[in-house]
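Consortium newsletter contribution from the modelling node. Members have asked for a concrete example of what our holo predictions look like. Here is one, prepared for the flavin-adenine dinucleotide complex that several groups have been discussing at recent meetings.
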Amino acid sequence: MAITRRQFLRRSAIAVAAAGLKPGSAFGSIILSGPARKVLVLGAGMAGLVAAYELSKLGHDVTVLEARTRPGGRVHTLREPFSDGLYAEAGAARIPENHDLTHKYVKEFALPLEPFYPQRLNALRFDRGGREEVPIDGFTDAMTRNYGGELGGNPERWQKIKGGTDLLPRAFAERLRAKIHYGSPVVRIEQDASQARVVFLSAGQQQTLTSDYVLCTIPFSVLRNIELPALSARKQDVIKNTHYDAVARVYLQTKNRVWEQKGLNGFAFTSGAVEIWQPTWSQPGPRGILMTYARPGEAERITNLKEGERIATTLKQLDEMFGGVRESFERGATKCWLEDEWSRGAWAFVGMGSLLTAASAEGRIHFAGEHLSPWFSWMQGALWSGLKAVKEIEEFVKV
Ligand SMILES: Cc1cc2nc3c(=O)[nH]c(=O)nc-3n(C[C@H](O)[C@H](O)[C@H](O)COP(=O)(O)OP(=O)(O)OC[C@H]3O[C@@H](n4cnc5c(N)ncnc54)[C@H](O)[C@@H]3O)c2cc1C
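And here is the predicted structure:
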């Protein structure tokens, strides 16, 4: 299913309304009301991390199982293969001013924010029938026009974490330390009347942990390949059939920011609705990175190319657009989320009418993740759903 971002957001809003899930955050004070319990959190992305952090603060005995060797999941800052400490985002990058939960934790961990968009020099846009040089609000206008107001508006309402978005999951992980077991992919989740059990691999060997509750934040695109004997047929059906969108990003490191000599800041919006960013505009030079951000339609085409071809075609495209990029090019990198073993897609639209089934707990097994929130495809959604699960578990504990 290839839907535009605008359709996607509209459908999301309807699905949320249909499911009776209120988008208001209001998780200010969760107070432990029952005995401490053992909780196994599956996945150390934003949903799992916030839940593990808040459950620990409440005094519960929390263990996190994470398949990767790092925290953050779809929050991933690429520092390799770039030079001079330059970095670019593979996943989450922009924070709008109204994402209160994202801002709450950025503030709690004292992470510095900076503007997402440069105010100097011009952007390019090609979505109105030709090449135009425009101030940066012309870029966000193209976003509004093509993807809806949620992704556009005043450029000043968008911020980013200085130093990389991964500082946020790392801040959670630092506080959880030994509670997170990395390199531990879950292969089976089961339960009976007295406990939940999770089977996972550790150095290739199967191990089992038991707990009072499980909070599963594994994306449905991965969860559908895990053994889930304890779940209802209806839940398994939603897990199997939830569609995940493709996103592809290609990064080009250059010796110099050649576009600046032409009065350009390295941001552009193509006729095919592909965003081009220069994530390094606020990082020290002289080197720079230009990157493309393709959504469904174009993203699958790029994913189907070999790594070398992705870089070669992007180099041609950006050289034609800005001029001088080929001569200045040093190295490239790519990130295609459909081929990521632990994500298998960028984000999910849980179909109308299925959201309640998808989000609700079954026995001792609870669920969270961006796909189960009113903010699909945002860190805010992952945080919201993680906190919602904490509240649910607290309700169970109370009984
Ligand atoms: C390309 C892209 C751009 C984005 N841009 C933005 C943005 O600008 N702003 C914004 O706010 N948000 C953005 N997002 C969305 C944001 O990154 C996600 O909504 C959020 O990070 C999802 O968190 P999560 O915890 O739900 O899922 P995940 O981050 O996917 O976490 C799930 C975790 O489970 C782990 N896992 C998977 N399988 C297993 C297993 N078998 N056993 C154990 N662990 C497992 C994964 O490794 C992962 O760490 C973007 C996402 C993408 C992909």
